[in-house]
Amino acid sequence: MPEGPSILILKEDVQQFTGQKILTVSGNSAIDIQRLNNKTILAFKTWGKNFLICFDDFSVKIHLLMFGTYRVNERKETEPRLSLGFDDGEINFYTCSVKILEGDVNQYYDWSVDVMNENWDPKKAKRNLNLIPTQMICDAVLDQDIFSGVGNIIKNEVLYRCRIHPESLVGKIPSEKLDELIAECSIYSFEFLYWKKKFELKKHWLAHTKKTCLRCNLPFVKKQTGKKKRRSFFCTNCQQLHI
């Protein structure tokens, strides 16, 4: 599943079409796609893993799910879920969720919980974490209402950086450690973006999919953790379990 930084790259890739009128629409989406025909795109926005195409009276929300992809000014052989044609190019989305959001897009999103948004509020993240003391931190970090844009890669890397065991209970983690984790969720997301643009993201992974802890030279544990049952890679020696 593409994480927040990858959706920001998508936003950058399509900026050429801001202010342009859609001249052709096609695809196998269940929405009324012809509603987009002859509409002018006012802006492209992102909220975490959501990509937003904004018009004057509604927006189209695209979520790439687990295996979604897109192409700008080119096509795959398979039929797109949504294809938008312009005077000088096209955008094609595949294997994704497409929905209509009526009215002002701001009524649907709290921009202050997006770890890569200029309105990101770490103090709000701390308050939200304090409301779920019995939840495992591996689940909390993936909660899009607290850390919008954070996915499993970022989760594993941040927990390793902060030396926190993924099955630690939120309420048992020292306050200063929570502050460190909150900060790293945003810091690492921007590093993720930088590395991905340079096509070198994987070589910077210290925990995700790794077999050995670089700090301890001990085997990593690979385990589905928390209620979300997402893959965690962690060292039981240097990542402290707070329970």
Please describe what this structure looks like.
The chain has 243 residues and is an alpha+beta fold. The chain has two domains: 4-107, N-terminal domain of MutM-like DNA repair proteins; 111-234, Helicase, Ruva Protein, domain 3. The chain is 23% helix and 21% strand. The strands form three sheets. It has a four-stranded antiparallel β-sheet, with no helix packed on it. Strands 2-3-4-8 form a four-stranded antiparallel β-sheet, covered by helices on one side. Strands 9-10 form a two-stranded antiparallel ribbon. β3 and β4 form a beta hairpin. The longest helix is centred in the C-terminal third of the chain and has 23 residues, at 175-197. The protein is elongated, with a radius of gyration of 20 Å. The two termini are 30 Å apart. The model has no long low-confidence stretch (mean pLDDT 97).
H-E order: HEEEEEEEEHHHHEE
User: What number of structural domains do the residues give?
Assistant: 2
| Spatial gap, N to C terminus | 30 Å
Sheet-strand content, in percent, reads 15-25%
C-alpha Rg, in Å?
Answer: 20 Å
**Major β-sheet strand ordering:** 1-6-7-5
Ranges where pLDDT stays below 50 over 5 or more residues in a row are none
CATH classification class of the largest domain: Mainly Alpha
**Count of β-strands:** 10
What is the second-level CATH architecture of the largest domain?
A: Orthogonal Bundle
Overall mean pLDDT: 97
* Count of alpha/pi helices: 5
Give the helix level as a range of percent. 10-25%
Say what the CATH topology of the largest domain is.
Helicase, Ruva Protein, domain 3
Backbone structural class:
alpha+beta
Mass-distribution shape:
elongated
Outline the biggest β-sheet: 4 strands, antiparallel
Family: Belongs to the FPG family.
Pfam family, one: Fapy_DNA_glyco
Catalytic activity: Hydrolysis of DNA containing ring-opened 7-methylguanine residues, releasing 2,6-diamino-4-hydroxy-5-(N-methyl)formamidopyrimidine
GO molecular function: endonuclease activity
